[in-house]
Design a protein that fits this description.
alpha/beta; 15% strand; Rossmann fold; 7-stranded parallel beta sheet; globular
């Protein structure tokens, strides 16, 4: 029997207790990866997600860490390495509240909070996982960005600016780490409803879908399968790219 494409690889998905992160972790585990589901506070959800993966025959563990904290990141990676070895597939998915308000109501801290999630956290994780990836001559780094960078959503300037910074990281790191066999790519989803969108009116959801060429909103599996592809050997010659997974909402 042909092995799964990620068999024996160690994958870390940040913010994986629910939503997109959980779907990504499940997809990587089905592909054979030993999958670490990082969470900040939602221990019950993360443990349930990891348990579901194990019940389906995969390998998974939940690991708590604030990925914006250097010491917490290092401690988590030490635990992962003790269990399975160094992280080979890094998926930067963790996010926090996304303030929606006019510029007059923003403070600099609002911007800093977004930069911490989408620049500082990937930086801390990359800096710690990079040496082992270089030694192995293989690595996959996948950022979860957003179509908002291309759409330029009004009243979300802090979030949009930080997500745009992830594009810069992707392109710069692809050039820097490519000679070491490490690919760095970004997936930019459209609006994909998950648990935190439970209270959004149906009219708002349908209004968005009406302008998407495929006439629907995406589901978490759409993003998860794109991550699985970029993590595997089929994407060996793809790096520095920003892949929109949004039904054609942007081009």
């Amino acid at each position: 029997m042909k092995p799964n494409p990620l068999t024996s690889r160690v994958a870390l998905v940040t913010g994986a207790s629910r939503g997109l992160g959980r779907a990504i972790a499940e997809s990587l585990a089905r592909a054979g990866a030993k999958t670490v589901l990082n969470y900040a506070r939602s221990r019950e959800d993360a443990e349930a997600a990891a348990g579901a993966i194990r019940s389906s025959g995969g390998e998974a563990v939940a690991e708590q860490a604030d990925v914006c904290d250097a010491a917490a990141v290092r401690a988590m990676l030490d635990r992962i390495e003790s269990r399975w070895g160094p992280v080979e597939v890094l998926v930067n998915n963790a996010t926090g509240p996304q303030p929606m308000k006019p510029l007059e109501d923003y403070s600099w801290q609002d911007f800093q909070d977004q930069l911490d999630f989408f620049v500082k956290a990937p930086f801390l994780l990359m800096k710690e996982t990079l040496p082992a990836m270089k030694r192995a001559g293989w690595g996959r780094v996948i950022h979860i960005g957003s179509e908002v960078v291309d759409v330029g959503c009004a009243n979300y300037s802090a979030y949009v600016a930080a997500k745009a910074a992830m594009v810069g990281l992707t392109r710069s790191w692809a050039n820097e780490f490519g000679p070491s066999g490490i690919t760095v790519n970004l997936i930019a989803p459209g609006w994909i409803p998950v648990e935190r969108h439970a209270d959004v009116p149906a009219s708002e959801l349908s209004g968005y879908s009406a302008n998407v060429p495929l006439r629907r909103q995406g589901v978490p599996a759409d993003v998860a399968e794109a991550v699985r592809f970029l993590a595997g050997d089929g994407a060996n010659f793809i790096t520095g790219q920003c892949l929109s997974v949004n039904g054609g909402n942007t081009f």
